[in-house]
Amino acid sequence: MAKKLVIIDTDCGIDDAQAIMMALAAPGIKVLGITCVFGNATVENVCQNVLKVLSVCERTEIPVFRGSAGPLVGASYSLSDHFGSDGLGDVIVDKDPQWEQKVQGEHAVKAMLRLVSENKDQVSLVALGPLTNLALAVRLDPLYPQKLKDLYIMGGNTEGKGNVTLCAEFNFAMDPESAYVVLEEFHCPTHIASWEFACRNGLTWDFFDELINQDTPAARFMKNITSKCSAYSQDALKNKRDLYFGPCFVSYDAYAMAACIDNSVVMESVNCAVRVELQGLIGRGMMVLDRTNELKKTNNASVMTKCDVVKLSQMLIQSLRLPCKK
Ligand SMILES: [Ca+2]
């Protein structure tokens, strides 16, 4: 069977690392390239993080491209230290001094355009960070979205619950204009794993312990990068997620990746137009669902609402059994 072709656009924090490993472990997936964007860390750190993940999984043949270092407009918010200042929990001591030579010379946005032109209608794009690279891609080639097979986004919110601001989810809040451009102009099948969707389909901390205590290089790596990270400290009072949804283990980006690998992991979704609020004192960056077609938009998105958590758990377990021969 032909493999599904995937480009991963990432701001490689810990959950991105998990999602990338999920793609690497999936027998039906071929990763054409990984494009980097600022977000959980600087784009330079993100590139290093992706290279590190590929090295742990022994998949260094996959090309890595450096992309946008900041949002389209202004400086939206300072970089998050949710996953540590380097994005991977500030525990990696053996940083690769040669990392820059291992990043491709081609810019991430150009690579996104080229890889899709070479494989028209066959590529699934999985966006796990701020959407800056995607917005630039559609500016350079307005027909770019039509050349994609489909688009999977981790980002946005459906209930007005924010995690970095009162009403906005991190990836959209970091670059609201880019999120707006993508939701308006990517007229391809679009699947969104929102923040609330991930939180409402969280897993137990017992499962997390089982996941990271597997005896494999990838699991040991995941155990190491989560070991000193407050996001994995199980302290119920630490963040808004636990306040709103109760304590649970949530690997955000894994939800979008799981849906791309096997769409049956999505048990229910809402199909409607979506838009990002760009103004407002407290609403900037918030995603709005247009269930009654007030906006008269011609493109809809499939907004995930219910996840098959058993299937997701199996995919997560499998993803940390790397490296393996495909
Ligand atoms: Ca991410």
List the SSEs and their pairings.
Blueprint: E1 4-10, H1 14-25, E2 29-36, H2 43-56, E3 64-66, H3 99-102, H4 108-117, E4 123-127, H5 132-140, H6 144-147, E5 150-154, H7 170-174, H8 176-185, E6 190-193, H9 195-200, H10 205-212, H11 217-226, H12 240-245, H13 252-261, E7 266-276, E8 287-290, E9 301-307, H14 309-319
Parallel strand pairs: 1-2, 1-4, 2-3, 4-5, 5-6, 6-9
Antiparallel strand pairs: 7-8, 7-9
Helix pairs in contact: 1-11, 1-13, 1-14, 4-5, 5-8
The structure holds calcium ion (CA).
Residues 11, 13, 15-16, 39-40, 128-129, 253 line the site of calcium ion.
Number of domains: 1
Number of beta strands:
9
* Shape call: globular
Structural class: alpha/beta
Low-confidence stretches: none
Named CATH architecture: Alpha-Beta Complex
GO molecular function: hydrolase activity, hydrolyzing N-glycosyl compounds
Organism: Gouania willdenowi
InterPro entries: Inosine/uridine_hydrolase_dom (IPR001910), IUN_hydrolase (IPR052775), Ribo_hydro-like (IPR036452)
Pfam families: IU_nuc_hydro
Describe it.
- By secondary structure, this protein is of the alpha/beta class.
- It contains 14 helices and nine strands.
- The protein has a single domain, classed as Inosine-uridine Nucleoside N-ribohydrolase, Chain A (Alpha-Beta Complex), CATH 3.90.245.10.
Task: List the keywords.
single chain; 326 residues; alpha/beta; Inosine-uridine Nucleoside N-ribohydrolase, Chain A; 9-stranded mixed beta sheet; 9 strands; globular; binds calcium ion; Ribo_hydro-like; Inosine/uridine_hydrolase_dom; Probable uridine nucleosidase 2
